[in-house]
């Protein structure tokens, strides 16, 4: 009993999730990993997309619907770019796959 309560103090987030939770869905995890593997490219693309979004808002409209559309389009473009960069890196890989 004492050991279990000590482990609870060391791992406080254990009680924040259900006991049989298996984590995020696999496609979402794959997208997050791809963006993380290409983090510098994603940062640079994000800066360019932020500027492009600013231009779109200044020239057309900055309504809530337009902001949501531009945000979702930017996220989709970043996911597509990360997927393309990961796919291209796999084609260039020479030697055994480590992971």
Features:
4 helices; mainly alpha
What report would you give on this structure?
This protein is mostly helical. Helix content is about 70%, strand content about 0%. The chain has four helices and no strands. The chain has helices at about 1-10, 25-35, 40-60, 65-90. Helix 3 runs antiparallel to helix 4. The radius of gyration is 20 Å and the shape is flat.
Unreliable residue runs? none
Using only C-alpha atoms, the radius of gyration works out to: 20 Å
Report helical residue fraction: over 70%
Q: Tell me what portion of residues adopts beta-strand conformation.
A: under 5%
Alpha plus pi helix count: 4
Overall pLDDT metric = 83
Topology at a glance:
Blueprint (H helix, E strand, L loop, with lengths): L1 H9 L15 H12 L1 H21 L4 H29 L7
Helix pairs in contact: 2-4, 3-4
Write a compact overview of the structure shown.
With 99 residues, the protein is mostly helical. 72% of the residues lie in helices and 0% in strands.
């Amino acid at each position: 009993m004492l050991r279990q309560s000590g482990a609870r103090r060391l791992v406080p987030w254990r009680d924040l999730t259900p006991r049989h939770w298996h984590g995020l869905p696999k496609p979402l995890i794959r997208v997050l990993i791809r963006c993380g593997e290409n983090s510098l490219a994603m940062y640079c693309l994000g800066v360019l997309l932020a500027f492009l979004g600013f231009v779109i808002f200044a020239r057309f409209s900055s309504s809530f619907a337009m902001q949501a559309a531009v945000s979702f389009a930017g996220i989709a473009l970043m996911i597509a770019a990360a997927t393309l960069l990961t796919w291209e890196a796999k084609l260039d890989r020479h030697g055994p796959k480590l992971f």
